[in-house]
Specification:
The protein is an alpha/beta fold. The chain has two domains: 8-167, Rossmann fold; 174-286. The chain has helices spanning 16-27, 40-49, 58-64, 77-84, 107-110, 130-134, 147-159, 172-201, 207-231, 245-258, 263-277, 280-285, and strands at 8-12, 31-36, 54-55, 67-70, 93-96, 115-121, 139-144, 163-166. InterPro entries: 6-PGluconate_DH-like_C_sf, DUF2520, NAD(P)-bd_dom_sf, OxRdtase/DH_put_Rossmann_dom, TM1727-like_C_sf. Residues 138-273 form the DUF2520 domain.
Length: 294
C-alpha cells in the first residue's frame, strides 16, 4: 500500500505458516531480516523462500526486528512470548498467527510497550511455495486490544491481499473449533472418500485409481461446499437428507467391509444430517430416537 512504512521482520519460526507469511511480507516490500528454523526442513525452507533472512535464535531475532511474526505451535506460544519479552519494547509490533489463542497471550510483551496483534490466516498450509500465493484473498481472524492495533493489523493484512475479520478475545476458542471442524475434519472425510472410491474403481487402490477418484470427487466437493456456504442445511443432499434409511444402512455395510475405520465417521455425519433435515427413518436405522418421539 503506497505510503505504508517498510519494516524489518523476524519470523519465529520458519515452519509452513511462518515461511508463507514472511515470504508474503517480503513480496509486499518489507525486509525479512531474521528467522528461527529449528529443523532441517525449516532451514531448507527458509534458505529457499526467505533468502535474505539470517538464521538465528528467538532472542536475537526479536531484538533487531520492528515486526515480529510468532508462528510457533499453539502450545509453545506462551513460552516463546516470555522468551522474547525482555528484548522488545515501544515501537515494536508483535503478531502471532495461532488460531486457538487470542491477543491476551501476548500480555508479557504488551507490558513492554509493544503493539500486539493476534492474526490467524484462515488457510491450510502444506509447506510449499503455493502457500504464499493462497494468502492473496485470504481472510484473517484478528483479535486486538485497541484501535491502533486494529488499524495496523488491517494495514498489514491488506498489504498481503487479505481481509481482517474481528474475533472477540473470549470467542477465540470457539472460532478455532469451528475452523478446525470445517477444515481439518473435512480433509479427513475427503481422504477417506478418495480411498473408498479408489477401491471401487480398481483393485489395490493404485495411483491411477486414486487420481480418477480425485477427479470424480473434485467437482462434486466444490459444488457441495459452495452450496453449503451459501445455503447452510438447506443445501444438504444425499440419502440421509432424503430419509433413505436403506441406502444409509447399505453404505455402512460396504464401508465397514472396505475401510472399517471410516464407518464411525459416516454414521456420525449421517446422524447429524438426519437431525438437520428431520429424517426420522434414518435416525431409527442408526438407533436414535427421533426428536419429539414418545
Amino acid at each position: 500500500m503506497p505510503g505504508a512504512p517498510r519494516l524489518t521482520v523476524a519470523v519465529i519460526s520458519a515452519g509452513a505458516v511462518g515461511t508463507a507469511v514472511g515470504e508474503a511480507l517480503a513480496r509486499a516490500g518489507h525486509a525479512v531480516t531474521a528467522a528461527v528454523a529449528r529443523s532441517d526442513a525449516s532451514r531448507a525452507r527458509a534458505a529457499l523462500r526467505l533468502p535474505q533472512a539470517r538464521l538465528t535464535d528467538a532472542e536475537s531475532a526479536a531484538r533487531d526486528a520492528e515486526l515480529i511474526i510468532l508462528a510457533v505451535p499453539d502450545p509453545e506460544l506462551p513460552g516463546v512470548v516470555e522468551q522474547i519479552a525482555p528484548h522488545v519494547g515501544p515501537g515494536r509490533i508483535i503478531v502471532h498467527v495461532a488460531g486457538s489463542r487470542g491477543r491476551a497471550v501476548l500480555d508479557p510483551v504488551a507490558l513492554t510497550g509493544a503493539l500486539t496483534i493476534a492474526a490467524h490466516p484462515a488457510m491450510t498450509f502444506a509447506g510449499s511455495a503455493e502457500d504464499t500465493d493462497r494468502l492473496t484473498g485470504c481472510p484473517w481472524g484478528v483479535t486486538v486490544g485497541d484501535e491502533l492495533s486494529r488499524t495496523v493489523a488491517e494495514l498489514l493484512i491488506s498489504e498481503l491481499g487479505g481481509r481482517a475479520i474481528p474475533i472477540p478475545e473470549a470467542s477465540r476458542p470457539l472460532y478455532h473449533a469451528a475452523m478446525a471442524h470445517g477444515s481439518n475434519h473435512l480433509g479427513a472425510v475427503v481422504a477417506d472418500a478418495v480411498e473408498l472410491l479408489a477401491g471401487a474403481i480398481g483393485e489395490g487402490a493404485d495411483a491411477t485409481a486414486r487420481d480418477q477418484a480425485a477427479a470424480l470427487l473434485g467437482p462434486l466437493l466444490e459444488a457441495s461446499l459452495d452450496n453449503a456456504l451459501k445455503w447452510g442445511p438447506r443445501a444438504l443432499t444425499g440419502p440421509a437428507a432424503r430419509d433413505d434409511a436403506g441406502t444409509v444402512a447399505k453404505h455402512l455395510e460396504v464401508i465397514g467391509g472396505e475401510l472399517p475405520h471410516a464407518a464411525p465417521a459416516y454414521r456420525a455425519l449421517s446422524r447429524r444430517i438426519a437431525e438437520m433435515k428431520g429424517s426420522t427413518n434414518v435416525l431409527r436405522e442408526l438407533g436414535d430416537r427421533p426428536h419429539g418421539a414418545d
